[in-house]
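Name: Molybdopterin molybdenumtransferase
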Amino acid sequence: MISIEQASEIILGQDTEPVPIEVSLEEARGYYLAEEITSPFDLPSFDNSAMDGYAVCGESSTYRIVGEIQAGSGDEYDLQPGEAVRIFTGARVPPNTTSVVMQEKTRVDGAVLYVDDSVDKGSNIRRRGNELSLGERVFSPGHYLSPASIGQIGSLGMDTVRVYRKPDIRIISTGDELIPPGRKKKEGQIYESNSYALNAVLEQYGFSCLERTHIRDDFKAIKEGISGYLDRSDVLLLSGGISVGDYDFVKQALEENGVEELFYKVYQKPGKPLFFGRKGDKFVFALPGNPASSLTCFYIHVLPLLQKLSGAEDPGLQRILIPLKHTFDNRSDRPIFLKAKVEDQTVTILNRQSSSMIQSMAMGNSLVFFEEPGKVPKGERVTTILI
Ligand SMILES: Nc1nc2c(c(=O)[nH]1)N[C@H]1C(S)=C(S)[C@@H](COP(=O)(O)OP(=O)(O)OC[C@H]3O[C@@H](n4cnc5c(N)ncnc54)[C@H](O)[C@@H]3O)O[C@H]1N2
Ligand code: MOO
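Structure predicted for Molybdopterin molybdenumtransferase:
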């Protein structure tokens, strides 16, 4: 059985070739850049006012108002000492402006401007190029396009951007005991929920599941189901049937479909019987059927691969250290991910940690990771993954 670190090395060590595509700025959120963005001009590209008020020339307590400049106006003024123009936030300031005085600090009588405070040279002027200079590198390839990144690219005048294509993903859930939510269940049956959770977590991270299906514990049907989906997917996610039971057919069905095993079983809890394989440029994760195992494996192992395939410069969820709100006795023999809640700058490990239970994950917002068993004192800073 391999360690979590070895699993991550295998996943992130896969040679993959993200495919660049061009998208409009409206569609670009959540993609990773496939190009370097450099600034096509100084930003801002002209000195402009940070306030509604008056652009004044020279240091004085009174000025003669000689005009008005609105935001967007190209009007030129050649201000002389003792002169002022009415100006608005974002409007281009005349070249020899000493400072912009906010209107709350002024009084106007006809064409005369009285300034309350002393005029601080250069104040309230946003200088040309003080955010970005012409030719400066703004974003590198692999940069994640957050709303702020989209805004910045728009402010540079670009309406399309080259990004990496997202992988085509399909999901197969397996198990005779499973019926879809909404139907009446019989004795021994349970509702199929993993594919719903997986579909939702894909969307949370900007991916989508193109198709999903459920297949009974029937070797031939599982083998055919895998074959049908694998041809059309970059990543195939399976849930259940990957352990050692007599009806766990997924591993053999993958092998018979020519999927090469990259690893099977990771020394972790939950999610030990995780399978990762590859056929050409297509990847397969067979996730353990227990609901918490399946989602934990997604966060820790599947998501980094999806991000890598999408061209991310730094795949994987961020880990932070947060003080534990209470003492915790970790009795797990395997490195463990515990459902937890970060609140008020501390983290609480929740009750109901079994791999078969998803309630605690639903009430929490994070996973706390412990490598070793033992008592962890209150206040100790513990590795926490926000999900
Ligand atoms: N003899 C052993 N038995 C088990 C081992 C082992 O090492 N030796 N490992 C256990 C661990 S750990 C896990 S995790 C599970 C994983 O088993 P499978 O991946 O084969 O999953 P199933 O047996 O199909 O299901 C497990 C559990 O989860 C429920 N389930 C499955 N699919 C769904 C779904 N789509 N939605 C909701 N719930 C689902 C299923 O009914 C079972 O209760 O194996 C242990 N056994
Ligand atoms: O490793 Mo299994 O995922 O504990 O339940």
